[in-house]
Amino acid sequence: MSKLAKEKLVKEITSMEDDFAQWYTDVCLKSELIDYTSVKGCMVIRPYGYAIWENIQRILDGMFKETGHENVCMPMFIPESLLQKEKDHVEGFAPEVAWVTHGGSEKLEERLCVRPTSETLFCDHYKNIIHSWRDLPKLYNQWVSVVRWEKTTRPFLRSREFLWQEGHTIHATAEEAQAETVRMLDVYAEFCEKYLCIPVVKGIKTEKERFAGAVETYTIEALMHDGKALQSGTSHFFGDGFAKAFGITYADKDNKLATPHQTSWGMTTRLIGAVIMTHGDDSGLILPPAVAPKQVMVIPIAQHKEGVIEKATEVYESLRKKFRAGIDVSEQSPGWKFSEYEMKGVPVRLELGPKDIEKNQCVLVRRDTAEKLFVSLDGIEETIEKLLEDISTSMYNKALERRETMTYSVNDLDEMKDTADNKPGFIKALWCMDRECEDKLKEVAGVTSRCMPLGQQDNIEGKCVCCGKPAKKLVYWGKAY
Amino acid sequence: MSKLAKEKLVKEITSMEDDFAQWYTDVCLKSELIDYTSVKGCMVIRPYGYAIWENIQRILDGMFKETGHENVCMPMFIPESLLQKEKDHVEGFAPEVAWVTHGGSEKLEERLCVRPTSETLFCDHYKNIIHSWRDLPKLYNQWVSVVRWEKTTRPFLRSREFLWQEGHTIHATAEEAQAETVRMLDVYAEFCEKYLCIPVVKGIKTEKERFAGAVETYTIEALMHDGKALQSGTSHFFGDGFAKAFGITYADKDNKLATPHQTSWGMTTRLIGAVIMTHGDDSGLILPPAVAPKQVMVIPIAQHKEGVIEKATEVYESLRKKFRAGIDVSEQSPGWKFSEYEMKGVPVRLELGPKDIEKNQCVLVRRDTAEKLFVSLDGIEETIEKLLEDISTSMYNKALERRETMTYSVNDLDEMKDTADNKPGFIKALWCMDRECEDKLKEVAGVTSRCMPLGQQDNIEGKCVCCGKPAKKLVYWGKAY
After folding, report:
1. Which 8-state DSSP code applies to residue B95?
2. Does some domain include residue A124?
3. Minimal Cβ distance to B100: which of A71, A100, A163
4. How far is B211 from chain A (nearest CA, A)?
5. Nearest Cβ partner of A71 from B47, B98, B103?
6. Which of A360, A388, A416 is the last residue of a domain?
7. Does residue A287 lie within any of the structural domains?
8. Largest CA distance in chain B
9. pLDDT of A107-122, one tens digit each?
């Protein structure tokens, strides 16, 4: 491989160590995931970025349908009066919505916000269609974009408009709704771990961090390369709060009027940010095989020589029946191509030159480890299939190992402050569940509660990291995106 | 089948002859395609309606990708100054856009419209990414919703927000862009005819009906059951007008600065309206097999008898490997179920009772013709596969025959007026290409030009139907949705 070409391209990406934020922006732009626009805080998702989202969508949508969910589409606008029906909800969202005030040249009688989330619209619809216990549950989802008027924005992580799915379900009983909330958290965790190769901590948010209008918010939290946490998906249990605010009732089996219980859950294009910051390196993206737009790129070597392009094309044609494969026969040098597809995070590069053809072999190069493998062209599909599986496992394990290494336990405020200042990562510490202590930890150590991991007992033994009083919960703290 | 149940359900749908508009609304609501919302002019697309859209999306998206297109995602907002860059375009769209004026509690420095279409956003992006002939063409598409502030709205046909795909491409030469425009019109026509079983007339719009900013607008026009035309898809050739307005240039192979040429093309949820009004009848929907959410519904007869549900489930399980199949084992009567799935337009009903099981047979009922077939359970998958193909062909032929029967030719203004008043359908007539005659036909006969069919010579022989002067083009006229 041409060292010069490699150096030239790598130069264009700031190194992680020098400036992680700039590295992130460089990767987003140079690997052509996004482009900035004339619309402040909004981005173009370019074909390479959108193809990752399409793969995420396809897999997640399949998981939703397997668990009995159906897709619908609600309007993108919410009349102000509808947004105001649930008190906590409107308080949480009103400060950050975009308002439509005019249609054409006419002023609207009532202004409309562009949905920041659609609980109110789903409730408005449920009220129309739910009458009897026979109408329950409704297990709905929609794939749309939402708008939140953020002050500071970053590609994928925080933008004024972002793509997501929002699941909204309504059930006869609190128990069923509660079970759905946890079930979808499990779907989210499985998706992140199996397909994005990102280990996550499943937990419950503190009251302070809870979704506006929820009784309980469940979350999965991932740890990025720089030691910051990224909330990667949330699942909310609403109890009957929304149903009461919207007057949704149903006749139960005894023909008595009852109030249903609800959930909602969402994952967003933020996941692409999580992929970049979990797996990427100084050469660019490293994409998990399950969502990579191209899983394997065929690069002919000395392609001007007789038969090389033909053989490479033949290999490519056989691969693309089974994988998302690509071939680059452009006039660029092999070195340029190597750097290009490294930057774009293609999991496997397949090199094929005249000598390889003579020996009926090719060279496979793993993006995640840079390992080179000389393998026979016989059974190349099976070889690559197995390699992609290995890559997935190994990417997951590497991320898990890093997270474990970067997870610390602390016992008092000094330790918390010291760790927060000097050791980026998750910080495990006990907490008394008083809001005051949570606020103080933010003030003193700059950390927020990420979640209270699932599976712990109600009253844990030990002392609150902040006030020293008896603790109630183990909490993961950290700095977060 | 229980006659009572049938009558009960059919009563809920107004007959087409009594009131076609009410029939249409009834079908949309009763077959649970949509629901109205608190947001004026916007609808909920319910699971059954959205599943049709998902099938349309999947097939069309496959056709786009096969022809080399990539998906992207642009912001939903357009700054006012950006919308104003192309003069004709802003004149066409500004009167019907929704304006965002506030983000949270702050007034925006510049107001943003919610995209009515995204030419301006694509141009803004092209300007950033196109520098050399090597960067061309870009063949982009996006699946999003757009907003147009319509005064009178109807489900699927005209709503303030609708779902669509918008293709946007940019090419080195006018010839390439022109070829793309026609190629995508052909894709649209093929999709309508092959998958929606809707025959269409391919043609060019008159200047009056042209898309705001286009040099030429191509269209496919379908004829609905009531004799009104429905514009079902359009493909626009822009020449270099947008590129010039936005200052998009590239260095050609001789390193000279050149201006690229553009196209755009779109199809919308309106297609679902076309399906309803082309194929439906007084019992409800009749769905083309390619986009039907369920292609075959299994209905057990006398399901309380031993072994019936088991056998029906066994048949269903084998069918769902190959088809979008369903089974209804609810406590409702068979008659109720027959009416329900007739209303929902499921192409094939499979009835299976104790006597059928004894004979190793079942009853297949076609939704389109009500024909009953007694067939063996051996090879039932192949039988149904063939039947679905037959249904598609026959639905297309029926629609084509009706369109032919409802297409008239007229020679002068009296004939035009008489036909327009008394014979709903397409009206073929020659035209001198003067805008005045086009306006007069609208005023006198209430018809608009639908399109100038492709393939005709530049100067056709004969006289203009309006002024009697030498004609230039054959035009399809009609009343339209």
Report:
1. G
2. yes
3. A100
4. 18
5. B47
6. A388
7. no
8. 82
9. 999 999 999 999 999 9
| Chain A CA closest to residue B102 | A99
Based on the domain organization, do A384 and A449 belong to the same domain?
no
CB contact under 8 A, A100 and B98: yes
Q: Is A400 part of a structural domain of the chain?
A: no
The answer on A210 and A303 residing in a single domain is no
Please name every residue paired with B428 in a beta bridge, in sequence order, or none if there are none.
Answer: B409, B476
Question: Model-level pTM?
Answer: 0.96
| pLDDT score at A11 | 56
Domain membership flag for residue B285: no
CA distance B344 to B119: 37
Residue of chain B whose alpha carbon sits nearest to that of A162: B75
B220 and B185 Cβ atoms separated by less than 8 Å = yes
Q: What pLDDT score was predicted for residue B11?
A: 56
CB contact under 8 A, A121 and B37: yes
Which among B42, B103, B145 has the least Cβ separation from residue A98? B103
Q: Do B75 and A161 touch (CB under 8 A)?
A: yes
From B427's Cα to the closest Cα of chain A, the distance in A is 34
Closest chain B residue to A79, measured at CA: B39
Closest in A38, A53, A82 to B124, CB measured: A38
| pLDDT level of residue B3 (50, 70, 90 thresholds) | very low
Q: B341: domain range?
A: 296-388
Task: Please give the tally of structural domains in chain B.
Answer: 3
Q: Which residues of B touch A145 (CB under 8 A)?
A: 73, 76, 144
The ipTM estimated for the assembled molecules is: 0.95
Three-state SS at B300:
strand
% of residues, chain B, pLDDT over 70: 98
Considering only CB atoms, A72 lies closest to which of B38, B44, B75, namely B44
A163–B73 C-beta distance less than 8 A:
yes
Do A445 and A314 belong to one domain?
Answer: no
> Would you call B161 and A77 a contact, using CB atoms and an 8 Å cutoff?
yes
Is the predicted pLDDT of residue B36 greater than 70, yes or no?
yes
Shared domain check, A116 and A232? yes
Q: Which residues of B touch A71 (CB under 8 A)?
A: 47, 50-51, 54
Cβ-based contacts under 8 A for chains A and B: 152
Calculate Rg over the CA atoms of chain A. 25
CATH number of the domain encompassing residue B231:
3.30.930.10
The contacts of residue A48 (CB under 8 Å, 6+ apart) are A31, A32, A33, A293, A344
| Nearest Cα residue in chain B from A143 | B144
pLDDT category at B2 given cuts 50, 70, 90 is: very low
Residue where a domain terminates, one of B357, B388, B419: B388
- pLDDT, residue B12, reads 83
Q: What whole-number distance in Å separates Cα of residue B337 and Cα of residue B297?
A: 10
